[in-house]
Design a protein that fits this description.
Oligomer: single chain
Distance between the termini: 43 Å
Strand content: 15-25%
């Protein structure tokens, strides 16, 4: 029997493209991806690979910007997005990018979403909604001082990634990729993760680990 369908929201409006590259790790674990590559000699992962529904979020459904001067076509607005997602992945936009609809969405979704993963200053975007107060988090190492000044109610840690309950926050883009790889190893079948995601994408979360050397 196949596992339940996973619904994944991605906040990538005006973010650094590399911040959300970790979604490929999760995407490679999906039933849809496995169906495309299973003839290449992989084991039978049909009972392990879940179907995934992706929601690429923005303020409107018009083409939206992300770096480097690139546009993507959202398929769901913040207003219409389901709040009870399995995963919410948040990249890092500039501090000046704070759409009111995104703030409302994060506040309403936070208690309902099962897992939240942020990369770079995506954690500062999430913090701006007030939901991280009293929690541990990290952000891009170069912005830690600013984050502590802006949101002193959060315990900002100098780590590549931090886990506090259902919230996983990462530093720079590569730390975010490693964090999602580490999450996948801990919450999906390890053979599936290594065969379909980590080895093909040449990702090794253990090479640098959770802590700066």
């Amino acid at each position: 029997m196949a596992p339940p369908t996973l619904r994944i929201g991605v906040m990538l409006e005006s973010v650094q493209l590399s911040d959300i590259m970790g979604i490929d790790i999760l995407g490679n674990l999906s039933a849809q991806y496995y169906d495309q590559v299973k003839s290449f000699g992989f084991p039978d992962f049909s009972s392990l690979a879940p179907k995934m529904e992706w929601y690429f979020l923005s303020t409107t459904l018009d083409p939206a910007m992300l770096t480097p001067d690139m546009k993507f076509l959202p398929n769901m607005t913040y207003d219409d997005a389901p709040r009870d997602l399995d995963y919410l992945i948040i990249g890092g936009p500039l501090i000046s990018h704070r759409p009111a609809a995104a703030d409302k969405f994060m506040k309403e979704a936070f208690p309902k979403v099962k897992v939240i993963l942020t990369t770079c200053i995506g954690s500062i975007w999430l913090a701006s909604s007030g939901v991280l107060d009293g929690m541990k988090a990290t952000t891009n190492r170069g912005f830690l001082g600013m984050a502590k000044q802006m949101y002193p109610g959060i315990e900002w840690l100098d780590q590549r990634w931090v886990v506090d309950g259902k919230v996983w926050t990462a530093g720079g883009a590569q730390a975010g990729i490693d964090m999602i790889g580490d999450y996948a190893l801990k919450h999906f079948d390890e053979t599936l993760v290594r065969a379909l995601a980590l080895e093909p994408l040449d990702v090794d979360p253990t090479a640098r680990g959770q802590f700066y050397s």
